[in-house]
Design goal:
The chain is an alpha/beta fold and 403 residues long. The protein folds into two domains: 102 residues, Enolase-like, domain 1 (2-Layer Sandwich), CATH 3.30.390.10; 262 residues, TIM Barrel. Helix content is 34%, strand content 18%. The protein has twelve helices and 18 strands. The longest helix has 22 residues. The mean pLDDT is 97. It binds (2S,3R,4R)-2,3,4,5-tetrahydroxy-N-oxo-pentanamide (EZ4) and cobalt (II) ion. The site of (2S,3R,4R)-2,3,4,5-tetrahydroxy-N-oxo-pentanamide has 8 residues, from loops.
């Protein structure tokens, strides 16, 4: 099965997606997600200028060798652009190998370890009534686990809180990033009361998650984790900017609230201390931003030695192709934890035809050979690239802060 062509498709049906489309001599088409939110064209160029020409003539079955060839062979390793590009190749090759075998991809990864993947949905509200309404809406859609984000008095524009009824989408189509605000003291004062009210209204069973989005210092995060213990969170996500893995020792030593980290990580090396010292409970990486299925499976195997489970990133900026890859891997690995699921805008289905399902709170990748996703090139061309940026975040005095 020889690779004949590799092309990069940039399309914006509702939001921008970058897809690698590999064609073999037998006419099979494999897809890989290369979407890096707000920096999409950097990955598109990495692939079309530097990687696609190297793929022509290679054996599509050589998934491991191709991964090493692109990772070690480039000399310049790691980083989100590189690892997203390698991920797209890796996932497209797995798609091809599974199609050639006539099997859904999860069967090549060890087969199904469960009936389906518990998914969590997002609920955000500017105040408690709005938040409660948003949670009720997600429950009515079938979600059995909910990420809770809340407005904070005194902060006008805040991560995770959108106008009621509008879909959650942090990237904005504008020439420059919009600016949001942050105040750690106001947040730390307000949030425990929100979780208390939600737990009280929705009862003890419902798994509740919360994303701090990298904003706190270790001692602030330790305090927050401890103050949320009575509300039994499923996880507290990205409580610090965790490039400093050792910082999590301090958080961990003060709280038993489970910790999730890593949606911005791109390599197993970002996790070595966190996993080795058991400083977190869930791995947030998706195949798309971590070098693909080949690389994430290794991270999860290492995590499994320490009873750390998956919690793969599944925002709208992981494309339908990237979501399918996450679902096949999540169905197969033993240490699956939970899957984030934010359905794409309806218009995305004009371009990407998917076969994964969501029923009774569980996702399933479906039974089509390969990933089970098709890309309609003619439809993709009808949605030309539109620039969008993630927000930038500032403290009350104007200092740029982690977003
Ligand atoms: O900010 O996907 O847990 N989910 C998140 C997301 C990320 C976006 C960044 O592209 O934190 O909303
Ligand atoms: Co997050």
């Amino acid at each position: 099965m020889i690779i004949e062509s590799a092309e990069v498709v940039v399309t914006s049906p509702g939001r921008t997606f970058v897809t690698l489309r590999i064609t073999t001599d037998e006419g099979l088409i494999g897809l890989g997600d290369a979407t890096l939110n707000g920096r999409e064209l950097a990955v598109a160029s990495y692939l079309s200028d530097h990687v696609a020409p190297l793929l022509i003539g290679r054996d599509a079955h050589a998934v491991e060798d191709t991964w090493q060839y692109l990772h070690r062979g480039a000399y310049w390793r790691r980083g989100p652009v590189t690892m997203t590009a390698i991920a797209a190749v890796d996932v497209a090759l797995w798609d091809l190998v599974a199609q050639r075998a006539g099997l859904p991809l999860y069967q090549l990864l060890g087969g199904a370890s469960r009936r389906g993947l518990l998914a969590y949905g997002h609920a955000g509200g500017r105040d408690l009534p709005e938040l409660s309404e948003a949670i009720h809406r997600r429950l009515a859609e079938g979600f059995r686990a909910i990420r809770v984000q809340s407005g904070v008095p005194g902060i006008a524009a805040l991560y995770g809180v959108t106008d009621p009824g509008t879909a959650y989408e942090p990237a904005r189509r504008a020439a420059r990033p919009v600016e949001e605000q942050w105040d750690s003291r106001a947040y730390l004062r307000h949030l425990p009361g929100v979780l208390e009210a939600v737990r009280h209204e929705f009862g003890p069973e419902l798994p509740l998650l919360h994303d701090v989005h990298h904003r706190l210092t270790p001692i602030e995060a330790a305090r927050l984790g401890r103050s949320l213990e009575p509300y039994d969170l499923f996880w507290l996500e990205d409580c610090t900017p965790a490039e400093n893995q050792e910082a999590l020792r301090l958080v961990r030593s003060h709280t038993v609230t489970p910790l999730a980290i890593g949606e911005v990580f791109n390599s197993v090396h970002d996790y070595r201390t966190l996993i080795g010292e058991q400083l977190v409970d869930f791995i947030r990486s998706s195949p798309t931003h971590t070098g693909g299925i080949t690389a994430l499976r290794r991270i999860l195997d290492l995590a499994g030695l320490h009873q750390i489970r998956s919690g793969m990133h599944g925002p709208t900026d992981v494309s339908p192709v990237g979501m399918a890859a996450a679902l096949h891997l999540g169905l197969a690995v033993h240490n699956f934890g939970i899957q984030e699921y934010m359905p794409h805008a309806a218009v995305t289905a004009d371009v990407f035809e998917t076969s994964f399902t969501f029923a009774a709170g569980l996702l399933h990748p479906g039974e089509l050979p390969g990933l089970g996703v098709r890309l309609d090139l003619a439809a993709a061309a009808r949605y030309p690239y539109q620039a969008a940026y993630l927000p930038v975040n500032r403290l009350p005095d104007g200092t740029v802060h982690d977003w």
